[in-house]
Amino acid sequence: MLQRQCTRKADAVTVTATFELKPPPYPMDDLEPHLSKDTFEYHRGKHHRAYVDNLNKQIDGAERDDMSLDDVVLVTYNKGGPLPAFNNAAQAWNHEFFLESMKPGGGGKASGDLLQLIERDFGCFDRFVQEFKSAAAAQFGSGWAWLIRKVDLDAGNAVNPRPSEEDKKLVVVKSPSANRRPDYTSTSMEKLVSWDVVSARHEVAEARAAEREIEEARKKKEELLDKKNLPRFSWMRQMMILRLITLECFAVKICRKFRGSAHPSFFH
Questions:
Q1: How many whole angstroms separate alpha carbon 111 and alpha carbon 199?
Q2: Are 104 and 31 in contact (CB under 8 A)?
Q3: Could you say which residues of the chain have pLDDT below 70?
């Protein structure tokens, strides 16, 4: 459960929230023997909890307005000039995303539209797996490897694809330590990753991309129509003004005519 608050003042942004450590979507011993319960509890209780607790400390006391963790990440990213709370907010979000990317009895191979997309962009599924493993193993220090839509993102620390405001994430693998990282990454891809969750995210990303394309096309059409109609509207407005002036002059002439006639009562 989350309690989210935020306020924006002029050019300044302040955020506050009270976040609780979100429970994993499965019992912590269900990933054994590939990820032990002890390792899971240690990483969640030390690293994940630290990000949540530190985030709460950083944003404590600010004015309140409802926000999701997604919103906090976007606001604190601050269009590329991260605010102090960004790292902890993004890392808390990354960990939730990571836990949801795994399941007991996972691994195997993607299917359906997602598999076709992977084969289109990587040549074959096995090549994608190898490139993903290599990217994760080459990550300096602790970090994240992402499979995303359309864009390449190579960024350090907690930065994830979310700050671009585009839902292009497909799957993430996190190494809990630099020790035996290649082995851990291989096990994650072969035994733990939930391709059902990844496929569902892909469908959502496709739907949002389609909505954005429709909205962008609508805006372009409106802009084009505005440009085409602007001279016409300006001309019509000028004609209206001229007609009003003409009518006013005509009315003045009529008034003068009748004022000089034998019917002065007409104007009473």
A1: 8
A2: yes
A3: 1-17, 61-65, 140-141, 150-179, 227-268
